[in-house]
Amino acid sequence: MLWEVGGLTFGLSMRYLGVALGQSISLGTCSAFGTLLPAVFGGMDLFHGSGLVLLIGVCVTLAGIAVIGYAGSLRARNMTDEEKKAAVKDFALTKGLFVALLAGVMSACFNLGLESGQEILELAKAGGASELFALNPVILLVTMGGFLTNACYCIVQNIRNKTGKDYLSVLGTVLVNNVLFCALAGLLWYSQFFGLGMGKSYFTDSPVMMAFSWSILMSLNVVFSNIWGIVLKEWKGVSRKTVVVLITGIGILILSLMIPSVL
């Protein structure tokens, strides 16, 4: 349920900062907390041995995200108010940063939930579930908590704004499109965690890579969110320096994916 608080504010972070910067800050915070909190609660020493390797990997990830965040601040500094509104209609740097940080911390609870469900994971394996699919029951329980939070929030907003009837007022092609695109978004969103579970099944012999898998997922999210930001022209008209900083940040993130295995 705490994770879905992050989900609700995550949407606001993109509203105020855009896809590229909003996802970078939110997912960067989510990456750090989501990777380190389960390790700490699991008793891992972050300053020696494998724990130190994990900490270094997370620090490199955060460095890449910080560089991308700096690119975002350069973009904001060099844009007029009209250009900011054209790129991101409700652009608000200070408010956006606060919301993005809150979204990141709360969203990290998703991985905390996954790690807390290890007993369910082992039961699934003992019941004959494939190593590739054994995490699915845990994902179901975690997302169920998120559904409850999201549903309550939507119902409260419907009552407050008297918009409940809007669900039935839009019929025909618009309704079909909304349902199809919502279903597609849910399928694609879920597939990342399905892939996470499959990927972790190959890291069973490496506790560090097992713990770092969440950071890998978040890093790839940031990389592709910035690629989408470029496609959506959120970085259109920025200086060459800003472009270089952005590409450098993406490069550091890609490098961070290999740090634990190299060390």
Uncertain runs are none
Helix content: over 70%
The assembly state of the depicted protein chains is: single chain
What's the helix-strand series?
A: HHHHHHHHHHHH
Q: Quote the beta fraction.
A: under 5%
Number of alpha- plus pi-helical segments: 12
Count of individual beta strands: 0
What's the alpha carbon Rg, rounded to whole Å?
20 Å
The major beta sheet can be summarized as:
none
Distance between the termini: 36 Å
Mean pLDDT: 84
* Secondary-structure class: mainly alpha
Shape: globular
Topology:
Elements: H1 2-41, H2 49-77, H3 81-87, H4 93-107, H5 109-116, H6 118-126, H7 136-161, H8 166-169, H9 173-200, H10 207-231, H11 240-256, H12 259-262
Summarize the structure.
By secondary structure, the chain is mainly α. The chain is built from twelve helices and no strands.
Task: Describe this structure as you would to a colleague.
Helix content is 81%, strand content 0%. With 263 residues, it is mainly alpha-helical. Helix 1 (2-41) crosses helix 4 and helix 9 (173-200) packs antiparallel against helix 10. The two termini are 36 Å apart. The relative contact order is 0.18.
Q: Key terms for this structure?
A:
263 residues, mainly alpha, 12 helices, 81% helix, globular
